[in-house]
Prior knowledge:
- The protein has no helices and ten strands.
- The protein starts with 5 loop residues before the first strand and ends with a strand.
- It has strands at residues 6-9, 14-16, 32-35, 50-54, 57-61, 76-83, 87-92, 100-103, 111-117, 121-124.
- Strand 4 (50-54) and strand 5 form a beta hairpin.
- The strands form three sheets. The chain has a four-stranded antiparallel beta sheet, with no helix packed on it. It has a three-stranded antiparallel beta sheet with strand order 2-1-3, with no helix packed on it. Strands 4-5-8 form a three-stranded antiparallel beta sheet, with no helix packed on it.
- The chain is 0% helix and 40% strand.
- By secondary structure, the protein is mainly β.
- The mean pLDDT is 92.
- The protein is globular and about 40 Å long.
- It has two domains: 1-36; 37-124, SOR catalytic domain (Immunoglobulin-like), CATH 2.60.40.730.
Amino acid sequence: MERNSFIKCKCGALLQMVSDIKECCPTLPEGMEALVPKVEDATTEKHVPYVEEKENGYLVKVGKEAKHPMLDAHYIEFIELEIDGEFLYRKYLKPGVEPEVFFEVPKGKEVVAREYCNIHGLWTNK
Ligand SMILES: [Fe+2]
């Protein structure tokens, strides 16, 4: 597993790797699964994070034209932005707020956004 990838436990806990796993630990403990981020919306509901480059950072929206719901029962838990594999920024969201975050950060070449929906899981733009 790669750094910044996610693992979900059957208890509901979400974990994120802070280092790469190469040869050690070939399997996850029982009850845990590696999450593969989804990259393509199949329904009318939009989850793929959309990144707009701004003068002093990046605006990340979920999704591009139609906003993802932000209801108590169904909402985006967080949006994160990884730049050049060196910096990781995350904003936690709550029901009722806009499903978007402006990250005032230095520009990079490789910009990856991820978001986590409490119902539909992990999504990325790349
Ligand atoms: Fe969702």
